[in-house]
Specification:
heterodimer; A: mainly alpha; two-stranded antiparallel sheet; 13 helices; 2 strands; 70% helix; B: mainly alpha; ABC transporter involved in vitamin B12 uptake, BtuC; 72% helix; 3% strand; globular
Amino acid sequence: MGALIDIIASAGLWAAVLRIATPLIFGTLGALLCERAGVLNLGIEGIMTFGAMIGWLSVYHGADLWTGLLIAAFAGGIFGLLHSALTVTLGLSQHVSGLGVTLFASSFSYYIFRLIVPVAGTPPTIVPFQPVAIPGLSTLPFVGPALFTQTAPTYLAILVALIMAYILVRTPVGLAIRMTGENPHAAEAQGLNPMRVRYGSVIAGSALMGMGGAFLTLSAFNSFFPTMVQGRGWICIALVVFASWRPGRALFGALLFAFFDAFQLRLQTAVQGVPYQIFLMTPYILSIVALAVMSRRARVPQALMQPYRRGER
Amino acid sequence: MMRFEPREYRPLYMMALAPLLAIAAALVLAGILIAIAGAPVIEAYRRILLGAFGSRLSATETLTRATPLILTGLAAAVAFRARVWNIGAEGQFYFGAVAVAACGSKMLGSLPALILIPLLLIIGAIAGMILILVPLWLRLRFSVDEVVTSLILNFIAVLFVSMLIDGVLKDPMAFGWPQSQGVVDHAMLPKLIARSRLHIGFAIAVALAAIVYFIQSRTVFGMQSRAAGLNPSGAAFAGVQLGATLVKVACLSGGLAGLAGAIEVMGVKGYVTTDLSPGFGYAGIVVAMLANLNPLGVVLAAIFTATMFVGADGMSRSLGIPTYIADVTVALSLLTMLIALFFTQYRIRRWAR
């Protein structure tokens, strides 16, 4: 028991929670935005992989870190455009199209990476984002090192969550997005163009996914390697359900999930005699449990996964 | 502006042409990537074809690689037909593989081959079924989308297998390398062609494709599973037991994926590692879509996919193009196939105001 309390009482754990949560916050918000407009985006896993690769590659070739993050967002948006063209314009199965985008985006990332960076013993590295101590707050005992000495993208992720919550609930743009996700016919009757709203949401959401991936190579680690996203995208899709499609709860869900992940990492060293794979499984098992608990209660956007065609019911 | 108008009927030639056009488009797009890398495109494709079918050895190698792809492709095809989105074939593959490794050595190794081999194949299939029942149960009981759960289960399954082959099933002779104990020699599938790796698993896979085709087109269960996919409420109204049908479909799908893992162990490797599958489960989705979910088409689509993978190995070595070009081409062909299928259903018309 004492060991457990030691883990929870260490500032290092809480700093790690925010660090682990950051890509999940970006990814979950991105997936949430797409789904609020009625489009399930299973391209997320591949888009995060591509964001991680292209962000890293840009910085490796001399771009500064923020430019790298921006390029990752832009690349994510391009894949969002592809997914929208397939699912919104053509109205294809969102499941299959999303999986296609994931398979393409991830294999394309590996192809480009291998083409430019030949196989080497140790992968080349960049200088990643450095922690930014927030003046005043970072000197607080315990809370300071735990919460206020993160890298800049982490603060940005939290800010994006708050902004998205505001936009979705309080602004006409948010109303248009929610309406399109609930009932595109009603949205069109109000003079909106559901197609355009869906395109915009999926592109913006995919850009956030790209940034989530780029965080992995530009802040959490300093190099890119294949399979580094490791199902984080799928966990984000689960977190959207857990969050009942609300940005604030998505932020909370990502933090909660990251807490368990950071906790199990430390538990691995504290507890002997249990295979390490058991610990690695727990985040995945938790996300399935979260889905089972929340799915019934969650308020699914009513037009999710339904293609919209003008004049067709 | 233009709009899409549903076609009244889908001509047969279009259905046959769609995958060919899709593959051609994917090869052109991948060709651009090869050209960007500075290699001669036509020469690259010639070497891929040569690497996959240039000699007796390479041809048998390609068919060996196609074997698990036929089975995972069938797994996806039967599930998708009933709108059971089983994306968990990768995990089911590993479950089937590890079940065979667990039972095929000391536990059942004393049985004669004639009993042991069929028994192990059944055990592998059952292991796959057990894993797929988790997402299906979550869907039926809690209405959880099975896509996400079956995807996440893939990661859990691989970690579980990693735990077993690092623990109770670890081969003590493997110099500390995490690798399972091997199955006994007489549990290995007989060769189809002498002095090659091609084993009777290929024949089993092709036979299963024919059987699945028969089930889907000629049996009540096949009709019910298609109805459950096309119009669930209509099917229920017509007296189809939806839950029971979906469970049967899922068992068939998971069983085929588990069998793929069992056959890969018993036909090729003899033991399990965590890199036994280079994504056979995910590639199976592409195979199924390229075949437009037709079980017989799955065989051809699997051979195409295997051609890309085996051929790209040799081409990559000689021209310096990353082997990932095969994965890119296969993924692209899924996207182009989706578009091709769309145009078998719709035609473009000018928007008339």
